[in-house]
Amino acid sequence: MSLQSAIEWTDATWNPVRGCRKVSPGCKHCYAETFAERFRGVPGHPFEQGFDLRLVPEKLAEPLRWKAPKTIFVNSMSDLFLEAVPDDYIAAVARVMQLATWHTFQVLTKRSERMRDLLQGKLAFAAQLPNVWWGVSVEDRRYGLPRIEHLRTTPARVRFLSVEPLLEDLGTVRLDDIHWVIVGGESGAGARPMKREWVTSIRDQCERAQVAFFFKQWGGFQKSKMGRELDGRTYDALPARESVIAPALAGRDTLIRQVEGVALRWQCHAAQSLRTLPSHPVV
């Protein structure tokens, strides 16, 4: 769940937070919750507490140990901007992204207002980092379109949309100041259907706006059978990325020690505050 990822639009995942809370229809069949709850009560497993919220400061330095440049999806098993995650912990995560300049980080949230506000405040140092892409999830008009408007006013070098699962026709989408759009259908048991015309509408709008378009999957119970071709081809566009060489081992070791000091302080804090973090509700 770290160094390699099966997600089509990233190379690796990094989870300094685990667990989340459902906030909108896109969360109904959350893959992360399904995975985590399988291991609830298994002693010593990373998800022994299921999908309850946990800070994982021992993971903070992880990207600094990866020498080869990677595109990294941040918190595939949570949401960095979840209400109960402290501002200062989010800032600690962002500082690691600031240090690991040879990686590209993809941060995706449904808490778009909090992300916008923090990037205008405590996280201002990270807003314009060329190696950090800030994005929001979009599943429908009621919940998803307002997130796009929040993102458009968020200070960021690269802004992206993850339109997955796409649950209805979004109509006209404002794509000015958006740099990348991912579209995908829901997969797994109980997957809700996605219509072709909903996808082609977004693709065509991206083409007119000159926004990079990535079609992830059609989804369904057996998503591999449905594939990811749209009109006879795949769409794999990504924003441009800068090529940065990782520091030599000695330089990375210095960065790792610096972050491990921060992580140790957060480990003490997390141990004291876990009882105050809300558990994931049974839905």
Largest sheet properties: 7 strands, parallel
The SS-based structural class is alpha/beta
Order of helices and strands: EEHEEHEHHEHEEHEHH
Amino- and carboxy-terminal Cα gap: 25 Å
Protein name: Bacteriophage protein gp37
Pfam families: DUF5131
In short:
InterPro entries: DUF5131. This is Bacteriophage protein gp37. With 283 residues, the chain is an alpha/beta fold.
Structure notes:
The chain has 283 residues and is α/β, with parallel strands linked by helices. The protein has one domain (12-274). Helices cover 31% and strands 14% of the residues. It is built from eight helices and nine strands. The strands form two sheets. A seven-stranded parallel β-sheet has the order 1-4-5-6-7-8-9. Strands 2-3 form a two-stranded antiparallel ribbon. Strand 8 (180-184), helix 6 (196-209) and strand 9 (212-217) form a beta-alpha-beta unit. The longest helix is centred in the last third of the chain and has 25 residues, at 249-273. It is globular, with a radius of gyration of 19 Å. The model is unreliable at 274-283 (pLDDT under 50).
